[in-house]
Design brief:
This protein is an alpha/beta fold. The chain is built from 9 helices and 7 strands; from the N terminus they run αβαβαβαβαβαβαβαα. The protein has a single domain, classed as NAD(P)-binding Rossmann-like Domain (Rossmann fold). Helices cover 53% and strands 12% of the residues. One of its GO terms (cellular component) is endoplasmic reticulum.
Amino acid sequence: MYTFLEYLGILGLIIVCYKLVKSILLLSYFFLAPLLRLNIDLEKMGKWAVVTGATDGLGKAFALKLASKGVNIVLISRSKTKLVSVASEIEEKYKVVTKIIEADFTQKEDIITAIEKELSGLEIGVLINNVGLSYPHPEYFLETEKAEQLYSDIVQVNVAAMLIMCQIIMPGMVERKKGVVINVSSTAADIPSPLLSVYGASKIFVSKFTRDLGSEYKKRGVIVQCLVPGFVATKMSKIKRATWMAPSPGAYVSSALKTVGIQSHTTGYFPHTLHLNFIKLMESLSPRFAEWIIVRTMLNLRKRALKRYPQ
């Protein structure tokens, strides 16, 4: 007979083996699927792609990558100056047509009608719901500066904007029986996110909604994917230098688009998958220790941010 500790050891070994096998399978997805052409040809979905939050970071990288495939691009963001600049860059580099829509998703007024009017008549095959808003830095829920406005804006941008764009664009995809919707969530939705509680919760909504939406419209020809990236070197993350674990937006997007049609819920980038599985493994083995590590990390980020930008 095994002792209780031996049973725990066996259980831990089983969990570790399961995570290892899962990581190996995911590794094969990332590298073999594109070679076997199992992923979707996005350029065949329609003549246009729509990207929200398209002037910086991941949004701009998505727009550039899709344009490189010969797809016309609709850029949506709140800065007209940046929109014009990115549109010019895309047209000059890839010789495709662009269209810009100036829209501030933090505003409460109805923007559905305005966006619908601008998109009317376009054969949109790809929608990238990328626009997002987070905290200036990790902070306690009750100590966040201008908390009421910030939390309201986070919900409006991360949740409502996604719903609005799906409502506007998906009917055309359903009618043509083809299309791809990519909703950008975050690993914050899959792991504990103390000191980013509202942001993490908003991204959980994105993940849950995307899973169920994909199930609803799979048989109607619409692929709905949720991306849960980890750290990427963008203005939002405040990471200035790209690394293996925090890639450039271009490197991340190139990897993520290879998973479309293969994985419905993915980090989109294998090192992020390893990191996510490691944290989940820690949680399964010792939830308290995993929580302690994450809280300490967030507190260190908060301390550095306050030192750099004192209130």
